[in-house]
Amino acid sequence: MDAMDRSTKPSAQGSKSARSRAAAADVPVDGRAASGAVAGSDFLQLDIGEAPPGGRTAWLADRLRSAIADGRLPIGARLPASRVLAEELRVTRGVVTEAYRRLAESGQIAGRGRLGTVVVAAPAAPRDHARDAAGSGAVAGPALFGSGDRDGLIDALRALPCRIDLSPGVPDLAAFPRTGWLRAERAVLAGVGPADFGYGDPRGAPALRRAVVGWLARNRGIRADPEEVVVVAGVAQALGLLGQILRADGIRRVAVEDPGSLGARQQLEYGGHEVVPVPVDAGGLDVGALRASGTRAVLLTPAHQFPTGVVLDGERRRELLSWAAEGGVVIEDDYDAEHRYDRPPVPALRSLLPGGVCYAGSVSKLLAPALRVGWLLVPPDRRDALVTAKRYADLGNGVLTQLVLARLMDSGELERHLRHVRQRHRRRRDVMLRAIERHLPGARVHGAAAGLHLMVTFSDPRDGARDSGFRDTDLAAAALAGGVKVHPLSWHRITPGPPGLVLGYAAGPAHEIDEGIAAIGTALRDLLP
Known about the structure:
alpha/beta
């Protein structure tokens, strides 16, 4: 951690001085205190005697996290050099550097050169969720999973405190390219004129629409013109705008994948649409069932289906495009398309039938959902209606964020970031796979080749052909009681199916993934008869 500590390589004189101090304190050089010696630090009043045997690193990391959370270490606070803290606690320096590394990986601390290691992020101030729930009538805590009303479930779960969050749909936010973003933002601010701060084109800044066209051509095989691109506030807004257009065309029933995203389904339902479930199997959406449903529009995630992770296969693609050519409306949510590890890239449906596919994408899973930036391409006959809907929705996205993102795309910075997070996500996926094998024997893993999450399903350990005998909502509730957030698979189903969980691995450090799966394993054993 060179950037985290100026003293990473102490001089010979410094090492000799350390040995002298250790000897004076009757502490061996390797950091193990002699019998009767007291090891502690004035910093946060740390007492190494409180650490469990073999768990000093985890103990120190937890103490630091607690201090950041409760404000004793505010943003900007400087941590002691690892060498100094190790000497005070009379532990090996590796204990301290590993604890610092864990907090750096979760985005809470960072190296600042001569300033040393400082706190850069802290969780939001905790709320009294029990009081909030009592005042609003909402269901809090594990009881959330017993609620029959699914409206607002994901938001409610997101707001609850936890020890480890394995919810799906969030990238590695600690890897957000802060330096690159600041550099691009400075360049943008230096180049914009007064007119750029006025009301702009509701379709989006021309610079970003041009950059999106280049990005889609390089990474998704889509040929488009900037005039075809409408910048939106993420895929959620894209679905809302498309819903308005479809209703105006008399389309009020939309087919959706089953299982499929609860959030996307609720977005359509909020807009007044009836959602019609179409089953998903190993080949993706069942196009024969789609035809039989009689619906005129379908929403799907063909590149990496949520939550199963399957890819719409070649035969199904041909069938779907034939259905679209007959007048069907295909809404392609290009979910997780960039995040692939063990399979070749999959072309977007839009690249195969530009005139029949409404294509939606965003940077929510690539950079951060808080940016609220995405794009939507629709066939020519619906483009004017889309621009009108966007104009009356919000007059267009904020221009500065658009211009910064355009610069990242044009400069190659976004591709470099993608390569970086792909490696981090792959490592975390591998940790989760090993943890599932160790702590959830018998669980079946789906969708490991790409994405930011895994789906696991359970069958009876005594007879794999039988149902497991428990509800996945009960397992999710038990996991939350143990401090671990997950999504029960049944949340994302319309028709009943085997119990399972949807587990995100991208957002948290490796040690939390292993601890979280272990906690789920404990909860599962308590549920099984």
